[in-house]
Amino acid sequence: MSKFHLDRVNTVIIPVKDLNESIQFYEEVLQLRKGYVDESMAYFSFGSDGNETTILLHVIDQPEPVEKGIVIELSVDNVVSAITSIKEAGGLVAQEPIDRDWGVKEAIITDPNGYKLWISQPI
Q1: Bridge partners, 122 (sequence order)
Q2: pLDDT tens column, 89-113
Q3: Where in the numbering of this chain does the VOC domain appear (predicted)?
Q4: What digits encode the pLDDT tens for the residues 38-83?
């Protein structure tokens, strides 16, 4: 039996081809807080003290932006408002908000590398 427990997701690492384009998306479209940036990576965070999650954009030559078994879902207080804001900031919406039988309203957006991000709220 294991002698440890996981507390939370600490960092999600996203391989990217164009760091500047990705920085613009995560900062301006998703409005994440930008932290450390250099020529090969950029850190962003969201959440409150003690419950923050880090998104690390890391430059690689050949990112594979299609779904490979992992999808990032971001929880918001209002999906419709979030999608409106994302569109106004130039973000691409792959699926408009819809209500799901399992009790969430969700939409899907696409980042500059083709990664799909689910935006959801409980209903």
Answers
A1: 104
A2: 999 999 999 998 888 899 999 999 8
A3: 8-122
A4: 999 999 999 887 788 889 998 887 666 555 556 788 888 899 999 9
pTM of this structure: 0.71
Long-range contacts made by residues 2-9, C-beta under 8 angstroms, separation at least 24?
A: 8/51, 8/53, 9/53
Tokens at 67, concatenated: 């779904």
- Domain extent for 51: 11-122
* Domain CATH number, residue 104: 3.10.180.10
Instruction: Examine residue 118 and state whether it is found in any structural domain, yes or no.
Output: yes
Looking at the domain assignment, is residue 117 inside a domain? yes
> Is residue 5 domain-resident?
no
Residue with tokens 């998104």: 55
Q: What is the CA radius of gyration of the chain?
A: 15
Structure tokens at 79: 């999906």
